[in-house]
Amino acid sequence: MSVTNNLNHILSALPPNVRLIAVSKTQPAEAIMEAYNAGQRCFGENRVQELATKYALLPKDIEWHFIGHLQTNKVKYITSFVRLIHSIDSVELLKEVNKRAAQHTRVIDCLLQVHIAQEETKYGFSFDEAETLLQSGEIEKLTNVSITGLMGMATLTDDKEQIRKEFRTLSGFFKQNQKLSTANCRLTTLSVGMTGDYKLAIHEGSNMIRIGTAIFGNRQEKL
Ligand SMILES: *Cc1c(COP(=O)(O)O)cnc(C)c1O
User: Fold this and answer.
1) How far is CA 143 from the centre of its chain?
2) Which range (1-15, 28-42, 119-133, 167-181) has the least confidence?
3) Model pTM greater than 0.85?
4) Distances from the Cα of 208 to the Cα of 34, 44, 74, 99, 194, angstroms
5) pLDDT-derived band of residue 1, with 50, 70 and 90 as boundaries?
6) Of 30, 11, 22, 78, which is closest to residue 50 (Cα–Cα)?
7) What are the pLDDT digits (tens) for 144-154?
8) What is the pLDDT of residue 222?
């Protein structure tokens, strides 16, 4: 299967309200260009250096999303162009994005990453922490960021019921907090679902999926 075929296969079964982010981490520019030539414009990367390199090399109408853990000292390398940061996992990081966005007179869209998996290792706010932040009035002071939604990743498991439960809990929290609406905080995007679980995620209310393997094939993981 080619990248184009894979993309079209996924898109043909996607509800119209769901956006597809093609996760191109570790993939070469040629593979990204194949998806681009098939019409895909949104790509997701999880390494700052790799993203900055690809941004410089590839067409400027690509919408670049950052989806991995972001260190505060590296924010400055992507703030001039990044469209959406899915992985805001601390208030410090949000403040740094705000500061750097201001230097570029931009407002950068951000999602709060919520920890829904059982694994200790996944980054993100707990539900309590996310709720506290959303209700604190802190976000309103950060006028160069806009919180447009939430992101989550399920436990790495074959247990579909476990995954469903995690997605459902996040979706419930998302809906509950949609009544919040301030100048720069309104939850409209729910970014959940990857190659192995995106159908389940959409069923449970996701409207943004992040797909790598099902589009580009297996990654050559870096050591
Ligand atoms: C790699 C990655 C994906 C895509 O994973 P696939 O299983 O290849 O679809 C999605 N989200 C994040 C945060 C990732 O790091």
Assistant:
1) 21
2) 119-133
3) yes
4) 21, 12, 25, 27, 10
5) confident
6) 78
7) 999 999 999 99
8) 57
Q: Which of 40, 53, 48 is nearest to 79 (CA)?
A: 48
Q: Closest by alpha carbon to 171, among 123, 207, 195, 131?
A: 207
Q: 161 Cβ partners below 8 Å, 6+ apart?
A: none
Ligand 1 pocket, residue 67 CB under 6 Å: yes
Q: Closest ligand 1 atom to the C-alpha of 46?
A: 15
Task: Give the three-class secondary structure for 109.
Answer: strand
Give per-residue pLDDT as tens, 21-34: 999 999 999 999 99
Q: Contact 94/145 with Cβ under 8 angstroms?
A: yes
What gap in Å lies between CA 204 and CA 87, rounded to an integer?
Answer: 20
User: What are the structure tokens assigned to 93, written together?
Assistant: 């990081």
Q: What number does the ligand 1 atom closest to the CA of 214 have?
A: 9
List of residues 6+ apart from 121 with CB closer than 8 A: none
CA–CA separation, 30 and 152 (whole Å): 29
What is the C-alpha separation between 38 and 10, in angstroms, rounded?
13
What is the tens place of the pLDDT at every residue in 159-189? 999 999 999 999 999 999 999 999 999 999 9
Question: How far does residue 146's CA lie from ligand 1's centre (Å)?
Answer: 23
| Six token digits for residue 46 | 């999880």
d(CA 166, CA 88): 19
Reference 197, options 221, 165, 220; nearest CA is 165
